[in-house]
Amino acid sequence: MRRSTTLLTALVIASAAWTITEASRWSGASGNLRDAESRLEQVTADAETVVRLRASRQTVAMTVRPREDVLGLVNTVLADAGVPSNRLRDVAPESVRSEPAGDGGYRRQGMALTLSPLEPFELGRFLKTWQDTDTVWRVNGVELQHAAGQDTDPSYAVRVRLVANYVAEEAP
Amino acid sequence: MTAHRTIPAERCYWANLDTSPLPPARSRKERREQLMYLFEDRLPIALSDVHASFVELGQGRVAACGVATDTVAEARDVGALTLVPDAVPGFLGGVDPGRMNLLTGAWQPIAVRRIKSRWKSTAAVLALAIFLGLGVGLRRRTAMLSERAGDTNRVIDDVYAQVLPPGGTQPPAVRLVSELRTLHRTRTEGVGAQVASDVGGSLVALLAAWPADLETRTEFLSVSEDAVQLRVLVPDNAAAQSFVAAFESVQGWRPTQPRVNQAEGAIRVNLRLEASR
């Protein structure tokens, strides 16, 4: 009688201990699921943002762009706009500087193109084609200088300033 | 024969014990031993020949009722379930005699002992069943939760696979954060107004405001982020006034005081517009 009671008591204690262990495992699994669901929510939101941003136009490069890239691009745009490539007189790189606005650690590199002679409609076509091109280079300034003493000539010497922003790894 | 027997009060040994000098007992057994030693002083016979019952009276007082073990054994052997005195002396403060059952402890009847044992076994079996049921339920629930967590993690992996390019040595979570950071810093929406702007829109606004009905000859035109500069030749002062007036309401630009002078038989107008944003 006493032995069976002892055995039964031991069983009750063992089952209680097992139940406590299972409760602990259940609590752990419950926490894991909560974490996973929360992570899924975050990852899904981030993935949607990535897809949306990828669909938008890139406005800033990750690194400084080589000069050759711009030259190739300018020639392509001139050809697409129907402007003879010999109108491109000069391509002059400008020094790199930090962006004055914001604290994003961006830097700006510039490039000045001189196109001459160029009629206003040709400049319009060039600028429109440039705007339609997917590039980080933006037209940041345009100057038209009429050739002195040639009143009837509709051509101008045009200076187009291109700038590209890129991400500076270290704040300047 | 009756299961509940009484014993004449004269056959019992009575005492009103003062327990205040006793140290606190750690168990009921120790408490009983303490009370038995206290009671011993009041007994005319050896303590080992007496079985006693105690009832707490409060304020450190305990009522003690002792009976010779022969009497208790006799009652138990004839099958009695309880043995109580038929009365309690007045100096014990009117304790209910029914509370002084003497068939307890070592003298507990076998029938009562069996019932108690059975009750304990039943309770133990019930507790065992409850714990087992609860444990099994929790185990199944844990398995279900783990499966759901596994499914969720697989969905997360799918999302990573859809968004991130294949390969890469970093964990996907780190790669996603890095990709997001890069995109935020390089795409239109994330960058905002922190970088150089395109002056194409400014040029369009400027040309749209250009007075079509005036004869003008543009010598110089410059458009930048901050300013627009114009140098044109017009036939006369009235035309110069009309030309300047045409640029007074260009959105985002504020004209400054123009400079007008005679040149080459015409009027030269120098006009500067500054960004008003």
Concise summary:
The complex is a heterodimer of chains A (172) and B (277). Chain A is built from three helices and six strands; from the N terminus they run H-E-H-E-E-E-H-E-E. Chain A is an alpha+beta fold.
List the helices and strands and how they pair.
The complex is a heterodimer of chains A (172) and B (277).
Chain A (H helix, E strand, L loop, with lengths): L1 H54 L4 E2 L5 H15 L6 E6 L3 E2 L7 E13 L1 H13 L5 E9 L9 E12 L5
Parallel strand pairs in A: 1-6
Antiparallel strand pairs in A: 2-4, 3-4, 4-6, 5-6
Helix pairs in contact in A: 2-3
Chain B lengths: L3 E4 L5 E6 L9 H13 L9 E9 L2 E8 H9 L4 E4 L24 H54 L8 H15 L1 H4 L8 H10 L7 E8 L2 E8 L2 H10 L6 E3 L3 E5 L2 E10 L2
Parallel strand pairs in B: 1-5
Antiparallel strand pairs in B: 2-4, 3-4, 6-7, 7-10, 8-10, 9-10
Task: Give an overview of the whole structure.
The complex is a heterodimer of chains A (172) and B (277). Helices cover 48% and strands 26% of the residues of chain A. Chain A has 172 residues and is an alpha+beta fold. In chain A, a hairpin with a 7-residue loop joins strand 3 and strand 4 (106-118). In chain A, helix 2 (67-81) crosses helix 3. Chain B contains seven helices and ten strands. The mean pLDDT of chain B is 89.
